[in-house]
Structure formats: structure tokens, C-alpha cells
């Protein structure tokens, strides 16, 4: 895939965001719930391959990317944010036997409640909904809303997150991610430092009840060893992704660090891949990872998406009328 023909840096970085997220998802999936260090233990030369395993074919993207694609397709088909339409697409997907679906997300999408109540009712019953399931699928919406103002983009992130997650902590984490991607795609010269330096401005827009906790995990001196929850929770997931970006100097190394944390490796790597793809651009993503990449879409007549399809989706979202 030739990425050199795009007239604006933002368009190229939009591709990097969505392809980077999908690559991280597929690369990390075979290592999910393994102990830390499994990625480099398997690839002693440090290069890493789309190896498959754990029920996943080499290069196969999981629910993280599948749901992100559904969000992106809805935004394009409905010419903007149509929450009932997004929820309906999620529901069709959820009942079509995807290989993986979060327990909370599955309950919300199949509990029979309407789109604007299902997540809230789940939260009232379970009193916990701060998983990373809304963060994992946010690359496409972050690209679409990147050309809007900070508050507009962050509000859209919250509203999409609230479809499946009733805990505001998940909304705020997804909103922060939206703004970091917005900064990366709209800055003149984007580097990892551009994203890291944008954290305080995003935090200033976080709900006051949640700002301190988010400030802790996104601080420059935070590292995954300080996490107080499993990285399937939204706080250490985003915190670990920023840590991986902050402590490495290439797209490949950022993903290796993310996956080697163990735990929820596909989602931590998907979030890391989106941020690193936005920072470094699509040319930093090695072909050995993009060539086997494919995204099945259970419940859809659409054939699995491959690299050219993700390329087209990213550009369509970036260029869509707002």
C-alpha cells in the first residue's frame, strides 16, 4: 500500500491511527491473558510476527477492531453520530457469534433494553462498568471527530462510550483518547511528544469527579507497575498505552512493550497502536504486520476487511463532511 500520495499529513496520520489500532489488536490477540514478557520470549530477535494462536488466525483482528469498524461505518452511512444506529449495528454483530465479546458488552447488547437505557441499567445492577471496551473501539470515531473542536470531539466520545458502559470513568477515558488523536491529526508536526504534551489540555476537560484519577495514570512518572487494577480496566489500559509511547522510539517497539505487559494484550496494543500510528504515521507500520491483517465482521454481508479497506475507511472518515 502506497501511503505517499496523500496531500495532507492529517490524512496520512488518520490512516496510521486506524491501521495502527487494528495491527496492535491482531498482534496482541494471541498473547491475551498470558504473563508479561511472552511476546519477546516467542520472538527472540525482537522483530515479532503475526503469529496467530489462542483461536485467532495470523493477522485476524478481534472485537476491538470489529466494533471500531461498525462505528466508522455508521458515521459514514448516517452522515454523523446516530446513536441508535450504532447500537443496532453492535446488536447485530453481538448475536452473530463473534469469536470474542466482552461479558459486559454482551450483556448490554442482548439484555433487551433500549439503546439509551441498556448500559445504565447494567451499571445499576452490577455497580461496575469501567472496563476498556469503549476505549478499544474508539480509533474510527476519534478520526472522524478530529476536525471538530476539543469539546465536540470529547462529547461524542462520551456518548458513544455510554452505549455500552454506564460508568463515567470509561466515558472520560475514551474522551481523553479522542482528544489525543485529535491533537495528533491536526498538529503541523506530530511526534510522540505532541501527544504526550496534549494530556494536560485533555485532562482540563475531564469531569471533576474523575480528573484526579485520570491525572494519576497519565502522569509522566506513572508506569504499569503502579496500576491498581488489571489492565482490562480503562485507567491502566490508556495509562499503559501512553507509557509504551513515552518509553520507546518506534511504532514496533511501542507495540512490543504494550504486548509484553501481559493481560489484556489485544486492547492495550490496539490503543497503543492507534496512538503510535498517529504519531509515527503509516509508513512506520511494517508490511509483515499489515499484509496478513484482516477484520471479520460477523452479522454483516461485508467480506473481511483488509489493508486497502482500512485505508479507504480512514480516508473516508477524515474527509467526510461534518
Keywords:
single chain, 322 residues, mainly alpha, 17 helices, globular, disordered N terminus
Poorly predicted runs are 1-5
What is the overall silhouette?
A: globular
Number of strands: 0
**In which range does the helix fraction lie?**
55-70%
> Largest sheet, described in full?
none
Structural class estimated from helices and strands? mainly alpha
Please indicate the percent range of residues in DSSP E strands (runs of 2 or more): under 5%
Helical stretch count? 17
End-to-end distance: 27 Å
Radius of gyration: 17 Å
Write the H/E string, N to C: HHHHHHHHHHHHHHHHH
The residue-averaged pLDDT reads 95
Describe the 3D structure:
With 322 residues, this protein is mainly α. Helix 8 crosses helix 9 and helix 14 runs antiparallel to helix 15. The longest helix is centred in the N-terminal third of the chain and has 20 residues. The relative contact order is 0.21.
Amino acid at each position: 500500500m502506497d501511503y505517499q500520495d496523500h496531500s495532507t499529513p492529517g490524512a496520512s496520520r488518520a490512516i496510521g491511527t486506524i491501521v495502527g489500532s487494528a495491527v496492535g489488536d491482531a498482534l496482541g490477540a494471541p498473547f491475551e491473558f498470558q504473563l508479561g514478557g511472552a511476546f519477546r520470549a516467542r520472538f527472540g530477535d525482537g522483530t515479532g510476527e503475526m503469529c496467530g494462536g489462542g483461536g485467532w488466525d495470523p493477522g485476524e483482528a478481534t472485537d476491538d477492531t470489529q466494533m471500531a469498524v461498525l462505528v466508522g461505518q455508521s458515521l459514514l452511512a448516517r452522515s454523523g453520530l446516530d446513536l441508535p444506529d450504532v447500537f443496532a449495528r453492535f446488536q447485530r454483530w453481538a448475536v452473530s457469534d463473534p469469536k470474542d465479546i466482552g461479558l459486559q458488552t454482551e450483556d448490554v447488547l442482548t439484555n433487551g433494553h433500549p439503546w439509551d437505557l441498556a448500559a445504565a441499567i447494567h451499571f445499576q445492577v452490577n455497580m461496575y462498568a469501567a472496563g476498556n471496551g469503549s476505549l478499544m473501539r474508539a480509533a474510527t470515531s476519534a478520526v472522524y471527530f478530529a476536525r471538530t473542536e476539543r469539546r465536540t470531539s470529547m462529547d461524542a466520545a462520551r456518548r458513544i462510550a455510554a452505549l455500552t458502559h454506564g460508568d463515567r470513568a470509561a466515558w472520560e477515558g475514551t474522551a481523553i483518547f479522542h482528544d489525543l488523536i485529535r491533537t495528533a491529526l491536526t498538529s503541523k508536526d506530530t511526534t510522540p511528544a505532541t501527544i504526550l504534551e496534549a494530556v494536560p489540555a485533555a485532562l482540563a476537560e475531564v469531569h471533576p469527579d474523575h480528573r484526579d484519577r485520570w491525572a494519576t495514570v497519565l502522569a509522566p512518572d506513572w508506569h504499569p507497575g503502579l496500576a491498581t487494577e488489571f489492565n482490562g480496566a480503562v485507567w491502566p489500559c490508556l495509562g499503559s498505552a501512553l507509557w509504551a509511547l513515552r518509553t520507546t522510539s518506534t511504532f514496533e517497539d511501542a507495540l512490543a512493550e504494550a504486548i509484553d505487559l501481559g493481560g489484556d494484550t489485544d486492547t492495550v496494543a490496539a490503543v497503543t497502536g492507534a496512538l503510535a500510528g498517529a504519531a509515527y504515521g503509516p509508513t512506520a507500520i511494517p508490511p509483515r504486520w499489515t499484509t496478513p491483517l484482516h477484520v471479520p465482521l460477523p452479522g454483516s454481508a461485508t467480506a473481511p476487511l483488509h489493508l486497502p479497506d482500512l485505508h479507504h475507511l480512514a480516508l473516508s472518515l477524515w474527509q467526510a463532511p461534518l
